[in-house]
């Protein structure tokens, strides 16, 4: 229900409602994760190592194969970022002329995928996006 309301707020460009609804959604997620961890701890009566393993499992911190698009609809992500990244003063930069005879490097899809898969967990590029955002 909250997700539908948030989607409507995004479509109407109602940033106040969107922020309020996003806060409510985040709060519910945190509460549910906390309750799940508490319940798991009650069920297993384990030590701190197992407890942290459960926390990491529930919050998805150890799940490398899960992409952002598995958790969120990519079109919703696009709509959200378009709404906060629109600048009426923006002008596209002029293309740079490449002189004839200049060697332009190119990477195959497989090479690019290999490089992305072998990024260190702490690596971020010039865009400061975390390493896990770039992998499917």
- H/E element sequence: HHHHHH
Shape: flat
Low-confidence segments: none
Structural class: mainly alpha
Number of strands: 0
Distance between the termini: 28 Å
Helix content: 55-70%
Sheet-strand content, in percent, reads under 5%
Biggest sheet features = none
- Radius of gyration (CA) equals 21 Å
Classify the oligomer: single chain
The total count of helices amounts to 6
Mean pLDDT: 77
Structure description:
The protein is mainly α and 136 residues long. Helix content is 56%, strand content 0%. It contains 6 helices and no strands. Helix 1 runs antiparallel to helix 2. It starts with a helix and ends in a 19-residue tail after the last helix.
Briefly say what this structure is.
Helices cover 56% and strands 0% of the residues. It has 136 residues and is mainly α.
Secondary structure layout plus pairing:
Layout: H1 2-11, H2 15-44, H3 48-59, H4 68-71, H5 74-84, H6 109-117
Descriptive key words:
mainly alpha, flat, 56% helix
